[in-house]
Design a protein that fits this description.
- With about 200 residues, this protein is of the alpha+beta class.
- It has a single domain, classed as 4-Layer Sandwich (Glutamine Phosphoribosylpyrophosphate, subunit 1, domain 1), CATH 3.60.20.
- The chain has 5 helices and 9 strands.
- The chain starts with a strand and ends in a 6-residue tail after the last strand.
Length: about 200
């Protein structure tokens, strides 16, 4: 299990993000993480919460994390959110789910080009990093999220934070097999693809 939470605000989102993630603490017992975007770019904090509550581990980080856009998670598996820099720009990403065809997707990623993954304990690959690698195979974040939706066998919720979300040429926000909304600076892939962009209600 696990839980994700995101905030898009006109002012500081840090306290809302902190309490929103803490509310999900019952969904996981291993890792907690927060990532915010503000005037100084991205800032992130991840802690092990196996032996102490989320609030205790993150109460000092709240003073240093400044921004009006933020995502975070409680995770039973991999440390996240991850900060990614690629040809699509910089973004933060967090996921919750189970990828049944993970080995197949990793083999395809290796076959498609020069790519590597950070290895976790026990030889496992961070599923969130795999999702980011799938997104980065396309020409826009929107197309990448749609590709994730098509490729993953299993259950996957993706919360993605990008300073600016670009759309592929000629497609607008509506695309086959997905519905879209625009809100804040968060891109979210649920059962249907929902897209959120800054500055729109």
């Amino acid at each position: 299990m696990g839980g994700v939470f995101g905030v898009a605000s006109k002012s500081s989102c840090t306290m809302d993000l902190f309490f929103g993630i803490d509310y999900h603490s019952h969904l996981g017992t291993r890792r907690g993480g927060m990532a915010v975007y503000g005037p100084n770019g991205f800032n992130r904090s991840i802690h092990n919460i196996e032996n102490s509550p989320f609030r205790t581990k993150f109460e000092r980080d709240v003073e240093e994390l400044e921004g009006n856009l933020g995502i975070g998670c409680i995770s039973d598996m991999e440390p996240q959110p991850l900060l990614i820099q690629s040809h699509l720009g910089s973004f933060a990403i967090t996921t919750v789910g189970k990828i049944n065809n993970e080995e197949e997707l990793v083999r395809e990623a290796y076959a498609n080009g020069h790519i590597h993954f950070m290895e976790m304990s026990g030889g496992r690959i961070n599923a969130t990093e795999l999702v980011a690698a799938l997104i980065n195979q396309k020409d826009s974040l929107v197309e990448g999220l749609q590709y994730v939706h098509e490729k993953i066998d299993g259950s996957m919720t993706v919360l993605l934070l990008a300073p600016e979300a670009s759309t592929p040429p000629g497609t607008g926000w509506a695309a086959p097999r997905c519905s879209s909304e625009k809100r804040g600076g968060l891109l979210c892939l649920l059962r249907e693809l929902r897209i959120y962009q800054p500055g729109l209600q």
